[in-house]
Design goal:
It is built from eleven helices and 18 strands. The chain is α+β, with helices and mostly antiparallel strands.
Length: 417
């Protein structure tokens, strides 16, 4: 019986992989069929090959899709320079903060199910937030209003990361080790709820651990682990078979090395597959940066979003929820998002993605209406609804850089016919 069950499981897996491969083939088109110029898309090849040849990138994968069809999917350079392992379309990448939009999507699903309200105070799910204070020079004071789930989704909650600045609250985060891998989401959220806010909720935009708190809220609402809910509600329906919180043994050969550009003679490996923390299942299931994925897995998620929440004949999100994710939801007094002195003029934030509201000198090749985000190892994506365009670039270089996105963006837009 056990042998029969095992054989059935293998057979089912083979059928599933074959079905997905067939579905993927149907999404691939000649550039002209997707409304793009093959000749002009070839400029992307030249740009990427030059970045690799010049030693700015170890390797990368670029996907360009229009009208839901993949017009360009190519790999460049190496997954591992030292071992001369070429980059491939199925390479597994650490996507870090590209995890956030997936977490946001699950929260909005639960809101549609009436399991929570976007304007619920965070303290409804994490009681330690009920007595949270805003940091002042004299100690602290009550916030003008409590942080809400909506605030967490758009990064206006008063929380911070403790990583990108050196404010008094940042220092408290670091001292408390809020992102300790030894904590689960419950421990983490209790710890954060006992720390002061950096500002009154709704008055500023600041990148933060908010998506990790959302992971805990998902657990409380669904009475299941964040990993299970994410798998059941999003990854399985979208057939995102290579996306998860760690890289299992059978996929380890597809896992890329992370490099730093600070070596005297070029790129230096800083996280190799064999010893990476991503090789083992974590205790801390980070909703803000914990996932690994492939470019085609992530494309499935963005395709669902670009189609207004539907995928393969089924609906995962309502069109209303998708609009909340992909249009600016910041309060009027918050004009643009910023990372310290890096002000992204003209860029707002929805409940899951950054959103281009108007043109400026920041990313001058972008277009109004674009939404997207990236990850700490320089993975990027952007979607242009007006052009029905999805672009994803995957590489593994830390610290984060817009190098690839900004290098190819004009060429991609010029290729639209």
């Amino acid at each position: 019986m056990l042998r029969t069950t095992a054989l059935l499981a293998v057979f089912t897996s083979i059928i599933s992989v074959a079905a997905r491969a067939t579905a993927d083939d149907q999404l691939v088109a000649q550039p002209a069929a997707a409304g793009m110029s093959a000749e002009k898309l070839a400029h992307v090849d030249g740009i990427m090959q030059r970045l690799v040849k010049d030693g700015q990138l170890p390797g990368a994968v670029v996907l360009v899709a229009r009208h839901g069809q993949i017009a360009h999917l190519k790999s460049y350079g190496y997954r591992s320079i030292e071992d001369k392992v070429p980059m491939t379309d199925d390479t597994v990448f650490r996507i870090y903060s590209m995890t956030k939009s997936l977490t946001s999507a699950v929260v909005l699903m639960l809101a549609e199910d009436k399991k929570l309200n976007l304007d619920d105070p965070v303290s409804r799910f994490v009681p330690e937030f009920s007595e949270v204070q805003v940091h002042t020079a004299d100690g602290g004071r009550p916030p003008k209003r409590p942080p809400t789930v909506r605030d967490l989704l758009r990064h206006t909650s008063g929380l911070t990361y403790g990583l990108f600045g050196d404010s008094a609250v940042d220092r408290k985060y670091r001292a408390a080790q809020v992102l300790s891998p030894y904590d689960d989401l419950s421990d983490f959220s209790v710890k954060v709820g006992r720390l002061p806010l950096e500002y009154d909720p709704g008055t500023e935009w600041k990148y933060s651990v908010a998506s990790d708190v959302l992971g805990r809220i998902i657990e409380v609402v669904a009475d299941a682990s964040f990993e299970k809910v994410l798998q059941d509600r999003l990854l399985t329906p979208l057939e995102m078979v290579d996306t998860g919180f760690h890289v299992p043994d059978e996929k380890s050969k597809r896992f890329a090395t992370v490099y730093s550009p600070d070596a005297p003679n070029g790129l230096r490996p800083v996280d190799v597959p064999d010893t990476s923390d991503f090789r083992k299942a974590p205790k801390f299931l980070s909703g803000g940066g914990g996932l690994v994925s492939t470019i085609q897995d992530y494309f499935r998620f963005l395709l669902m979003i670009s189609r207004g929440g539907s995928y393969d004949g089924g609906r995962l999100l309502s069109q209303k929820s998708v609009r909340l994710m992909t249009t600016n939801q910041l309060p009027p007094e918050v004009k643009s998002i910023a990372f310290g002195s890096d002000i992204r003029h003209g860029v707002g934030f929805g409940l899951g993605f950054s959103v281009r509201q108007k043109m400026s000198a920041w990313d001058p090749d972008g277009r109004v209406g674009e939404y997207g985000w990236g990850g700490a190892a320089s993975t990027h994506y952007w979607v242009s609804p007006k052009d029905d365009l999805i672009v994803i670039t995957m590489e593994q270089v830390r610290p984060y850089s817009f190098l690839t996105e900004w290098a190819i963006k004009k060429a991609v837009y010029d290729a639209i016919e």
